[in-house]
Fold this protein.
Amino acid sequence: MKNIILRTATAYLIPLLLLFSVFLLLRGHYHPGGGFVGGLVASIAFVLHGFAFKMQNTLRLMKFHPSKFIPVGLSVSIISSILPMFFKKPVMTGLWLNKPLPILGNVGTSLFFDIGVYLVVIGVTLNILFTISDSGQQ
Amino acid sequence: MIQHLIILPVLVHLITGTVNLFFWGKPQPQRVMSLLGTFTAMLIAFALFNQVRSEGVMVMHAANWKAPFGISFVADTFSSSMVLFTSFAGFAVSLFSAAGISAVRAQYAFYPIFHFLLMGLNGAFLTGDLFNLYVWFEVIIMASFVLITLGGSKAQMEGGVKYVSLNLLASVIFLTAIAIVYGLTGTLNLADLAITLPNIKNQGLINITALLFFIGFGIKSAVFPLYFWLPSSYHTPPSAVAAIFAGLLTKVGVYAMLRMFTLLFHPDDFMTAIILIISLGTMLTGALGAIIKTDLKRMFSYLIICHIGYMVGGLALFTQAALGGAVFYLFHDMMIKTNLFLIAGVIKKIRGTTNMPKLGGLYHSYPKFALLVAIVIFSLAGTPPLSGFWPKIYLFQAGFANTSWASNYYVIGLIFSSLITLYVLAKMWKDVFWKKQPDTQIHVPDHFQPLSFMKKLSLILPIVFLASITLYIGLDAERVLTVANDIAKEMLNPKPYIKAVLGHL
Amino acid sequence: MELLLVIMIAILYASGIFMLLRRSMVRLLMGIILIGNGANLLIFLLGGITPGKPPVIAETKSVFTEAYADPVPQALILTAIVISFGIQSFAIVLLRQVYRLLESDDLDDLNTPLEEDI
């Protein structure tokens, strides 16, 4: 799509969308938001880039293939969910730091679980969309 | 560590699958990791089984949310023994895939998805929450979709469409039933439901919901009018995949059915008659379908359907003997059906086809392999003292003890389909092993002989492993019977289960 | 509100089943998607519709003081939507692949005879 308005708008929108996705991810524990929604918003940013500048260029921009996000995200989630096992608590129990950190607020295992979900959602969504758009071009 | 034992069967496969994802495109490390993972899973399953047998029902509340509010994982004798047999089948198939899955498939998603499938199965066995059961079913379906279409041949795609559409429909029906149950009771915890459901005034609605569950699980476990997706999809994927599907996927449907209809719903006379008729239809269509098929894998697919009927009928009779027999048959069937498809894979490797008219002379060329197959076939046909004999005795006994008209037909169907199973297996033995290799066919090179010793070992060892478990089930039947009877007692009296989960009755 | 939802669920289920009975594979998938949405709405309806606040206790209080919406149906629907999102996208890729191999969208064309080699 060679549309100058879309391209210019995309250039401004992508950083905004990515920032917004991180915002959604971090506020997700007590407010609407969370890893899943954040991941979807982040993948929308990349899909928008794909619409404006073709999918190949998006892949180049991302440095890693989106499927690489899946195992990393899964491992982060798994580690954060089995961590309570070593403190004699059931799996997925939330463990929290005693003092809230600046900016981030309370930090606990659920945050890391959400970060894992965020990465997996980006990986899976982009993988699916790239596969469908690939098969569309052939 | 003991308190975490219950969740480890799920976690070990999740971790193995994830680690395998890091080795994307490198089959060799994936194979080693998968073998290690399935072996560890077997040890864990043994430990869990022993723990449950000695200490009683184990419960874990995920994320420390107490019972009716959070998701509980519950291991009673039934679920822990299902996990145990799943781990046997998983180990055997993992070993078989080291040589039985082509490098192209193994390079990509096969191993990770295989482990996610096993994770889903273990989760479905261990969960104590209705919606969580739905989620595990979806994990299983998702993984099996990928496995059944991995490779992308035309036949696989066709089989895949049938498999996908019917299973999606089953999930939607399952979800609808869950919605109604939640609307009626406001809880989804199985133990809590067991208390609240009998107190609902509108029992008619509950019976309809029970039927919706029965349809949903019925599609998944391929019972009578809804079985047709199974024989038209199970022969398409490679034998290792077909083996895990045959041994475990339909059985998780049967497990869910047994769990639902003993803990939550209690079949009344009308429902008993319906389930018995359905089980009769399943046995007959499965048996008659198996007669006309000339392809080994298709024939085995119909035999799966036929024997699902035995277990469903055992559920409908609802006595201790019948439930014990059904559970015993379930264990036996998981081992045998996995093994049959592995055997079909080896035969395919040897002769290049699984079409029976084109096969022959295997007894002449591979006598030891033929002996091994004979053990499996005799067990399946139910020759005493092998494993298929004992559960059938129990089912017969229960069928005769019940005097309703439907149970008479069930017993007739049981005898008839057992005879047909025997006939089909004898025909297969004659065609594949005793008959001379037909000359008309252009000579097919033997792909098994030139393999290295290690590869041969990894193809044969799983069959030996599963066959020896079958032998053990048959020869030390008393121990397995004790377990099966204990499970039947737990089913008829779910109070310990409820007490363990909720902490009160 | 309840009546409106009931009618909507009925329409979704009915049209979904109508689509399921067609021979076209795409229509089959559409039918399943429609029934799935109907099931989600059914959970929403049967969970009880209460015009309440989100079930989060305010920081200054220790118990709920107002009527709150039941969070479970929302969690169930969200999970069901995520799952069906994954499975439907897989099914779409599968149907595309089948279409490329068979050049047909008709379920009746799915029966390639393959007793010969498997």
Summary: The longest helix of chain C spans residues 71-102. The two ends of chain C are 55 Å apart (CA to CA). Chain C touches chain A through ten residues (CB under 8 Å).
